[in-house]
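task queued by scheduler; priority normal; single chain, no ligands, no partner chains; default sampling; output format set to structure tokens
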Amino acid sequence: MIPDFSSLKILVAGDAMLDENVFGDIERISPEAPVPVVRTHTKEQRPGGAANVAMGIAALGAQVRLCAVVGDDARAEILAEILSNAGVEFSFIKAANTPTVHKLRVLSQNQQLIRLDSEQALVGYEDAFESSFARSLDNVDAVVLSDYGKGTLNRVEPLVALARTRSIPVLVDPKGGDFHRYRGASMLTPNQSEFEAVVGAWSDEVGFLAAGEALRVQLDLNALLVTRGEKGMVLFSSDEQPFALPAETREVFDVTGAGDTVISLMSVGLGSGWSGEDSAVLANLGAGIVVRKIGVATVSPSELNLALNRRGAGRCGLVSADELELLVSEAKQRGERIVMTNGCFDILHAGHVSYLEEAKRLGDRLIVAVNDDASVASIKGPSRPIIPLEDRIAVLSSLAAVDWVVPFSEETPAGLIEHFLPDILVKGGDYAVDEIAGGRAVIARGGEVRVLALKEGRSTSALIESIKSG
């Protein structure tokens, strides 16, 4: 399960810009020139560059501050408003005669038709920017330097040195052909084209791996992460052999901002004290999500948790009530239907499996509340349960139909049900709906209560009698 990053403090510094997407439909070819005519219908504005990195970190729940040079113009005001609404703190140095960097994209049917850039070099503000950066370093867990070659990080060397003197991890998304400017950083995250422009071409994979490790040593980096598009990414580390990760998705709609997502997730991972490999796994997962979105975009913990669950690595099986509250909240935000059932499940048999599979088909997520041992004994008698709670949970958790298992100690799970209020409450047997614990609360909130028929001839009591009779 993706952890809570709310205690993390990340400083982002670099080239901030305002991205604008205009969406429309192509209806014809212009009679004036052989170009499509786009009838526009929607416009959106989003932070780009270093500002998008800050947005990505904020979307993960961490505290983030952005240092950047912007123009003294309306675009800077729009950028400030969007950042403020997202919970991003910022320290802007306003350039009197230089406009805020702006990128305008025209898209139709999720395809980018043209991009129009409006920019001037952000130079002449190095001293003020360095002072702003130094003032923002207190109590920071990690620093991200997002270099888009617009001039904000022209004098990047003292920024790297200042962070390192305070033992703060400093991650750099580099630009240009001179990576020696970033020497001594904790990590660089170039894409393959940027990497090749610096080290030259290679003939095979062995050559690529050798070039990566040589560059890491040459620049005195703790780690080098090269993103390779459809080939995934490779982490070069001083502690381990090169660590390769395959791409998470083949459905790529827009790679805009994918690098921002990678460094955002690497920063929260390393800032939390994770290993480089664990952080890279998280970053790779996030990149696989964001390339399926249009334009610069961010990734939420809910999306990451869902992606983990879909690949069988997310939080499933046994959960506490507190963990379940977060998981159910995220699932409901995604529009998923929650199904809940309960029982002792002592000696799991084919009847149980059939019943749980039928319950799961009613929605998207199935919660199974299971009686603890004392609760089973109070219902079934002192000779039960046959199977202890830990083993019953282990077996239930292994079933494909079951998402989350939560134990309870009361005679009925009414309290749990009334707290989580599933969309559908399910019980097996010949109960009347108004006899089912928690049922009235579910119905009152617009949910459903279903009674499913149990598989004839299959019961725990019958199994116990069969074993006793030999």
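post-processing summary
- The chain has two domains: 9-305, 317-468.
- The domain at 9-305 is CATH 3.40.1190.20 (UDP-N-acetylmuramoyl-L-alanine:D-glutamate ligase).
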